[in-house]
Amino acid sequence: FEQPLPINTQPKRLALGSDFAIGVKEDGTVWSWGYGMLGLGKFESRDVPQAIPNMTDFIEVAAGSEHVLALRKDGTVWSWGDNEKGALGYKEDGVPYGSPNDIRFSPHQLTPKQIPELKDIVSIAAGSRYSLALDKEGRGGGWGSDINLVINSVKSPLIKTPTIVYENKNIKKKIQTIKN
Half-sphere exposure (CA, 13 Å, Cβ side) for 111? Predict the structure, then answer.
């Protein structure tokens, strides 16, 4: 990213992946630029931020190396990008490749898709090949590659769907205090 953002970009939140950036503007729209997982249906390169269609009412974004999470005002979480290690939280649509006699699918989701198991989420985070979400009850969910490395330094198997990995009832009280 060698040139400054256009003056009208006005990002509220930004997240950086390995070769791309994602931003949420004050109006709740999600914008992307850079190379790769831009949420527009194909791998591409773009120097100028562009709105991702149908991504409105969002408040937060997080990026891993090659995947993105976006938190909507209604507490739902949307994701897209590389799902080789389960970082998206669902079975991706896949991207076809290969010869006509040998079609295969790479584990990528090129457009935003809602993670069905998640609701009432108040914050999100993403690591290299894993994702995290905190709900309003104080439960932390995680999924992807080696997710327990973040929690307790014990290597774990791959977790492909959101799984509660931490719970703290005091967080619920703090979240309610912040919202009031």
Answer: 7
Q: What is the DSSP pairing of strand 58-63 with strand 130-135?
A: unpaired
What is the C-alpha to C-alpha distance for residues 134 and 77, in angstroms, rounded to an integer? 11
| 7, 13 Cβ separation under 8 angstroms | no
Q: Note the pLDDT of residue 10.
A: 59
Q: Which of 101, 145, 139 is nearest to 121 (CA)?
A: 139
Residues (pLDDT < 50) of the chain are 1, 180
Residues in contact with 39: Cβ distance below 8 Å, sequence separation at least 6, in sequence order: 22, 30, 32, 52, 55, 68, 80, 110, 111, 112
**Kind and range of the H or E element at 176?**
helix 169-179
Q: Which residue type is seen at 117?
A: E
Contact 69/88 with Cβ under 8 angstroms? no
The pTM of the full predicted model, rounded to 2 decimals, is: 0.84
What CA–CA distance (Å, rounded) separates 159 from 148?
10
Residue in the block written with tokens 């990213």: 1
Question: For position 37, what pLDDT does the model report?
Answer: 80
- Condensed to tens digits (0 to 9), the pLDDT of residues 126-168 reads 998 999 999 998 888 889 986 655 555 555 667 888 888 777 7
Residues 6+ apart with CB under 8 A from 40: 32, 50, 52, 53, 110, 111
Residue 124 tokens read as: 């999100």
- What pLDDT does 154 receive? 53
